[in-house]
Amino acid sequence: MRKFPKLGIYVVMFTHIFKTFAQFFVVFFLFIIGFGLAFHILIYDQGPFATPGRSMLKTTMGMLGEFEYDTVYNDNEVPPIAWALYVCFLVINCIILMNLLVGLAVDDIKGVQEKAVLKRLAMQVDLVLDVEKALPAMLRRRFASKQEIVYPNKTRYWTIWSFWSRNTSPARAINDAMNPEKTPIEKLQRNQEILKDEVLNVKLKLKSVLQHTTQLEVMMKAMMKHHGVDIEEEQEGEDDD
């Protein structure tokens, strides 16, 4: 049933919760044994706690809400320590353990729901593969399409509505599949890449301008030296000014 599209996700939830309960059942069962034997020792004269087995069963039912407080404690005399044990049982088993079990189940359901789409698709794929394997080989060879011819530039109409509309052509569908609409994050990343390329181009141009400036400076110094102009004197004259 877990491979059916609609019911499968609930079966997955049930299996996850059952696995969690199986792991938690050891601690759960230890508390049941402890309180069940304690109630049997203290109030063994009462019917529900006459034997260890019945006492543990009554303890389990008490965790589910069947306390029978008046029948056990008001209609009969019990030792004072039984009252303290009963309070501990209410706090530990009925409040802490039961709420912990509910919390674990809710956490498992939340985790399954977050991945429900992927799990549903995976189960559908498994179901299709299982059904395909169950079919005879002759039917698989006959109905399985090994190749498909697509005419991207030829308009073909598949429905009555598409007979009047050219927006549903295979070419448009292929184009939309090859060029899907980008999300805002993808657009932002694309703009960042373009800006990064532009910054790199500007850096390369600045480097080229710097090289040309250096070459011009070398040429100017060579010309001034050729005409007998002392560069140091010119610089000192400029500093005096």
UniProtKB/TrEMBL annotation:
Gene Ontology cellular component list: membrane
User: What is the superkingdom listed in this entry's lineage?
Assistant: Eukaryota
Transmembrane stretches in the record are 21-43, 83-106
Task: Spell out the PANTHER family in the cross-references.
Answer: PWWP DOMAIN-CONTAINING PROTEIN, TRANSIENT RECEPTOR POTENTIAL CATION CHANNEL PROTEIN PAINLESS
InterPro entries given in the database record: Ion_trans_dom, TRP_cation_channel
Instruction: State the Gene3D superfamilies in the record.
Output: 1.10.287.70
Report the membrane topology from the UniProt record: Multi-pass membrane protein
Going by the UniProt record, its keywords in alphabetical order are: ANK repeat, Ion channel, Ion transport, Membrane, Repeat, Transmembrane, Transmembrane helix, Transport
UniProt KW Zinc-finger keyword: no
Write down the Pfam families for this protein, in alphabetical order: Ion_trans
* Listed name of the protein: Ion transport domain-containing protein
The residue ranges of the Ion transport domain are: 2-115
Q: Which species does this protein come from?
A: Nematostella vectensis
Q: Name one GO molecular function term.
A: monoatomic ion channel activity
**Could you tell me where this protein is found in the cell?**
Membrane
